[in-house]
Structures
1.
Amino acid sequence: MSSHGDPIPMIARKSAGLKGEAHVPGDKSISHRSLILGAMAVGETKVTGLLEGQDVLDTAKAMRAFGAEVEKRGNTWHVHGVGVGGFAEPGNVIDCGNSGTGVRLIMGAMATTPITATFTGDASLNSRPMARVTDPLALFGARAYGRKGGRLPMTIVGAEAAIPVRYATPVPSAQVKSAVLLAGLNAPGETVVIEREATRDHSERMLTGFGAQVRTEDSPEGRVITLVGQPELKPQTIIVPRDPSSAAFPVCAALITEGSDVLVPNIGLNPTRAGLFFTLQEMGADLTFENMREEGGEPVADLRAKFSPDLKGIEVPAERAASMIDEYPVLSVVAAFASGKTHMPGVKELRVKESDRIDAMATGLRLNGVEVDEGEDWWTVHGRGFGDVPGGATAQSHLDHRIAMSFMVMGLATEAPVRVDDGGPIATSFPIFERLMTTLGADLGREA
Ligand code: S3P
């Protein structure tokens, strides 16, 4: 089932060269944060380029429920914030749909205000672990009442008098880090998060942009991020860069589709997000960064990807995992078209995403004729080389947008078409995926 209706079966067939420009939507991580920080500032934040995928729309709705005004006029989203500590108690349950980022960041943002809110989501979100967020929120004085195993639906009772926290994240997660920093906004004194491996730093950058004092230092323990609590956040004008995690799909499709030459303009290349592109270059991909520049505090470039028939399997360094965590599904597809093995260690977190992504990809790849080995925190794809990947089977998307899009990319270069049982979840992060890919010349779409 898709998260918002009947399943949408999709099919992708072998395609001739993809050509043209791929204007992918705004960055999902930055879009969520623009709305949440906009809602916590005093005055009107303006956001253009916001991703209008279901995940972000659910966050917009949640911010309204907490008392912020959020509306779109023309191409601009206007967020009238209520200030740090100014959230009102929502009159109903907050439904975050499919979005782990949405629910975890919002829980953090409300946990140090003395209000109560109940959160739920779709079947995927309601099976994902929330203790990783509620454990540190409890240190601030918030209480959480959820289902067994710390699952949604869950009620958070915000702290009456929050105390600041020093917290070392036990898993590499920007969502956990961000939830703690957002909670720290309404605690007095300094809140400190320590992460062993650097994860995406959009929260730190944006908090600084909104006028909060945030310091990041590297220490033997890892990255130490210190936030000074109870700032007055100043409204901002935000231009959301395009999403590197969405760019990954047309880029990877171009690499494995004969005769392709695709330009993906204006892609956010924050080093905490760009691991996939370096990995692809190491595999021998004809991938270049053009026009490198900085926009809105984030590094940006235009990516050009060309058909690359001689890709080689590689060992992906475990320490790179955090910077490409959402890209392993589509990387595993590219790896199937490379010669030799691609080994991907240090990726336990893939098992608790919108689906168990190692299991979902390994099962679908095997059905489509690709050998995959896996362990709890690693997997290996045995590449068959270009022109020798059978395809012909239906993969299950498990309510996971990136699984659905990865198999659609795969089918563009397999011998027989590849199907997914449900492409509905694609709308959570990349609602124009089908139109954009077909405009480039990809033969994919809904099955009658
Ligand atoms: C995100 C962090 C990552 C990523 C997700 C977006 C964010 O999750 O997978 O798509 O915006 O902070 P984790 O923090 O669980 O690694």
2.
Amino acid sequence: MSAVPARFSRIVGTGSFLPPDQVSNAQLAARLAADGIETSDEWIVERTGIRFRHFAESHVTSSDLGAEAARRALAAADCDPQAIDLIIVATSTPDMVFPSAACMVQEKLGIHGCAAFDVQAVCSGFVYALSVADSMIKTGLASKALVIGAEVFSRILDFSDRTTCVLFGDGAGAVVLEASEAPGILGTELHADGRHVGILCVPGTVSGGKVLGDPLLKMDGPAVFKLAVSVLDSVARSVLAKAGRTEADIDWLIPHQANIRIMQSTAKKLKLAPEKLIVTVDRHGNTSAASIPLALDDAVRSGKIKRGDTVMLEGVGGGFTWGATLFDF
Ligand code: ACO
């Protein structure tokens, strides 16, 4: 009896898309000042590392951004869209309450019939979605997946709250993940702790034709900061141990792009040289579930990440959720 070949998944193409309206800290500060809200380029850069973010026009949705990122990933993978048999979109800002943004991306790509659904894990969403797609490929439920992170966080920002509205932006990133006899994805771990729902949330809901409660983002920044630093270190070590690798094997670290201080502290704890940290938070701001695939595509297209490199992705966000994935590109 011949042995069944092992089945893994690997990333065969990446893509991303940012809406064209790039807003600098100074431009945002000027817009806020018109409403009596005080902030400055100096404060934002010093506390977060953010210099720019992109805002989508009011008619542009997460599925619009996600479909464009997906087209670019499909082109990079030289993949016929009709070969895709699974679409997962990680988003907290879907176009509608239902159906999923993934179904809308499917329609925009002209693919019909394959499985399509959303994953909601806020800024950990892409790591969660990648893990679900990896598991579905390993078990034979899918062979070629589009995994997308897409957000229009500008829609849920309170522009009278300077502690949050300067942090976030819009965008999308995508990968094509395909079945392979060799990894690919080496290890993943996902976590959540619902005791911390209140430190980062959009508490409003739709009921009886009205929005009940506040539909805008609320965050206890210092509490999120503290939790993020501790869980990002432990989950990275745990994934390395599962994959039989060490910190020395990491060529590139792509943490969720929320705050340069959290990212640098994570890299330092893993004893990584600063140049191994992929940084796009300065140009994109925090794009929630889109931040990791946006940074991955940026690093691949700029020639930093090359075939064969080992990459650690780390997500952390509302829920509280967190997770990490290690893969050979
Ligand atoms: N401009 C000027 N001053 C400001 C601004 C601003 N935009 N925002 C806050 N301040 C002031 C505050 O009012 C405060 O003033 P005070 O001392 O007079 O009261 C002072 O700056 C310090 O405020 P802190 O909140 O203590 O500032 P901190 O250094 O903690 O930075 C920040 C805030 C950037 C939000 C930080 O806590 C952070 O990055 N937290 C983590 C966010 C994160 O990682 N999110 C990831 C998940 S996102 C998701 O899942 C959707």
